[in-house]
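dumping this here before i forget
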Amino acid sequence: MPTPPFRYFRDPLFLFCLAAYFVNRYAIKPHVHGGFAHTSLNDLICMPFWIPIMLFGMRRLRLRAHDAPPTLAEILIPLFCWSYLFEIHLPQMHLGRVHATGDPSDVLCYTIGALIASLFWQWFYRPQPKTASTPGSKCAGDTM
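structure:
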């Protein structure tokens, strides 16, 4: 049973996250102050948005030799790097303090987003069974 190739920029979860970002940015945030849309939505969609972009770049640079769905390592490494960089390292730097604040709830959102993405990609890109002949067509053993 072959596994369907990963769609990168045409991946449905990536496209959903892209749309969610723009809806949040231009339709929700200007009219709703505070709450999930302001504090956590972008963190939640971060991993399913950036991982396909990262994997596409790796594929183009020949650092990724296959078009399979993201592996566990390809999900966990960006999760750990992103969490460390934006929630620990940058808030401690002089220039980073102006724009970044370390927040454990952001790491939780990154992790939940990565978990949801992993489960979705495992489901969506699961190996597909080969279909038998289509209705009305003859199989090798059929006789009239």
